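Most newcomers find our protein records easier to grasp once they have seen one. Sequence and backbone structure share a record, each on its own labelled line. To make this concrete, we reproduce a full record directly below:
***
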Amino acid sequence: MGNHKKGLLKRYICMAVGFVLSLSLFAGCSKGSNQESETSLILGFSQIGSESAWRIGNTKDIEEQAEKYGINLMFENANQKQENQIAAIRRFIAYKVDVIAFSPIVEDGWDNVLTEAKDAGIPVILVDRDISTEKEGLTTCLIGADFYREGVMAGEYLIRKADALGLDHVNIVEITGTENSTPMRQRQAGFADAIANDSRMNILESIDGDFLKSRGAECMRYLLDEYGDDIDVIYSHNDEMTLGALPEIEKAGYAPGKDIIIISIDGGQEAIDVLKEGKINCVVECTPKLGKEVMETAIKLKAGEEVNEVIHPVEQVFSDEQDTSKIPERGY
């Protein structure tokens, strides 16, 4: 074959290869555009902090479910400060996210920033906790546990326990969660209502433990100094405070779970392990795995669909009334 023909052949081959490559690139770009449209939902999420195993498990589930559903997650940790959450929500608004979700550290003080979100046309999902407001339409729904029901289940367990032990008088100390937070108010109210008609029950004192392990220990030291042998029951609003209180009880010479009845809420692995050891009598479950519901709700909201105003997961009670060895791993 002559040099001229060889040159033409090489040119045609190069053109053909180039054409194929162009098609491949175009197809690749088209595929990328479809993926972008499928994952174009942007969710801004403001987390309270990382104060407990429950909260860490909740954050992990939110992140994992966002990835699973192909949702772009803008995540901010408020480190237990309301002003940080308000600032984060304003950043989400400025960024023009599609949906905002947050776990409010307290119930009050959200009207201004949520009105800004409403005016920007951005729907807001409450996760884990509720807010207190007289304005309508600031949020679309609440996804989280029924805290009042958790308090009721704790109180109902205590009545059964008192019956089983034949107690004719029961002195209770209560270590509550963060003052004015939804779980604090509702867990306290549910417990109080559950025991209200039982004349044996007497709450000696309720003290703010702020949902923190360190505060649980501090509160327990104070309560033991103040009431000592008079304490029959400790009702703690979360596992972290309970786990902080237990060593203080032992240091004071009492056997938790035997000398003093211990009731906790959350159901994290560490608390369940201690339940199995007999140092906690009852743990009311409050699951942190709310990510699936958050993502599915965000997708519906972006599509303009109606959503339920309240979405509660199904929860249970773990206690010394059952074979605790059969309780499965908790995953948080």
